[in-house]
Recover the amino acids of this structure.
């Protein structure tokens, strides 16, 4: 950690535009900040994005650092706010994914809806957890746009078997997404209460 007595001088140097002082501050605080944010987000990707965002904000508003009396508190308030915003965005994305998963059609022809804008990371994660047969059928239906009949013919199984596997796959995906949504809601509540 940056020594407390030297911290005001380092902050003044950063406020004056010293990239060397900023790099030193980043090196000292990044591991602690990453650990703190990861405990909130439970995601290495989101954690890395928030840490970069926090330090970018500090650099962009560096002139105000001369007024900071307790940098640790300042840093963690910014981080907490960024983490809450990231979790709320993730929650909104997950709600959209949940809606998508619930709308996966059970009819013969796939829908022509435009899902290109949906963030598929979580769905991909859920698909990877399916059994090999469920995964194969789900991907043939949703990605390759095969009908139940085409899947049944290609895999040498009955059409009803295709429907059953697809139904189980969709249920598993929905459960995965709902679990993630619940976790994010709990994390938002937790971090909000800690800030009170």
């Amino acid at each position: 950690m940056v020594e407390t007595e030297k911290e005001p001088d380092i902050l003044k140097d950063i406020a004056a535009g010293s990239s060397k002082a900023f790099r030193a501050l980043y090196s000292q605080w990044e591991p602690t900040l990453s650990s703190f944010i990861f405990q909130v987000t439970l995601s290495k990707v989101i954690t890395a994005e928030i840490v970069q965002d926090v330090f970018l904000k500090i650099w962009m508003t560096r002139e105000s650092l001369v007024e900071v009396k307790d940098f640790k508190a300042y840093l963690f308030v910014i981080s907490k706010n960024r983490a809450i915003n990231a979790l709320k965005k993730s929650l909104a994305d997950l709600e959209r994914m949940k809606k998508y998963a619930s709308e996966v059609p059970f009819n013969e022809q796939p829908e022509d809806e435009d899902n290109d804008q949906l963030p598929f990371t979580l769905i991909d994660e859920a698909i990877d957890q399916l059994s090999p047969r469920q995964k194969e059928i789900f991907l043939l239906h949703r990605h390759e746009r095969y009908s139940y009949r085409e899947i049944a013919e290609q895999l040498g199984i009955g059409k009803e078997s295709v429907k059953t596997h697809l139904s189980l796959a969709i249920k598993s995906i929905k459960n995965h997404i709902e679990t993630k949504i619940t976790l994010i809601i709990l994390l938002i509540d937790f971090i909000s209460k800690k800030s009170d």
Observations:
- Confidence is low (pLDDT under 50) at residues 105-119.
